[in-house]
Design a protein that fits this description.
By secondary structure, this protein is α+β, with helices and mostly antiparallel strands. The chain has helices spanning 3-23, 32-39; strands at 63-68, 78-83, 90-91, 100-105, 111-118, 123-130, 136-138, 145-151, 157-163, 171-176, 183-184, 191-195, 202-205. It has a domain at 63-205: TolB, C-terminal domain (Neuraminidase), CATH 2.120.10.
Length: 208
Amino acid sequence: MYKRPLFCIVFMIFMLACNLASNAPPNPDPNLFATLQASTPPVVFTTAPILPAQSASTEPTGKLALTCQISKEVSKEQICLVNADGSGYRRLTTEDDLRHYYASVAPDGKSVVYSAYNPPTKHFEIYELHLITNETKMLTNHFGDLNAPEISPDGKTIVFTRYYLDVNKPTSWLMDRDGTNLRQVVDIAAWDPTWSPDGSAILFASAE
């Protein structure tokens, strides 16, 4: 009389076990990872990886021309040159008994212009000294006492201060790079001229 209920219980347990087995996740295929790896295209970088930006160097560059007192006498000043970082200091002019001053480096860094006393003309003339060849050229001749020369940013023109007749009224002038085509900048007293960075204007000191 108990066989039918017992059979039903066993049958139900069997069916439940079958359902659990059917819902269990299948075992992974051992070749699954190999298949996925083969079917996945490799990643190719078409550009170089972006690296952190390098900080710009803060070391000064360029050259500085200056008046130096080799013999510690104002009347015998010379022109010297030094790198902007303080290295490479050297003397440029060699006339020990003559005064040199108001030096300025050319925009291309290849030469230096300055004023120096010239005994034959008895005036301070403007000179240009080429740093590679050490060749010196006198650009002016008996045009008064001249100083503060500075070459324009384009390298074609020189501005300078001229003292002539009235020492209390210096004037600013222009000339071509070779010393020709002299012309006055303004009619008022003007000295220590300098070029604007783009070469379109000239700044100068004046008491007027």
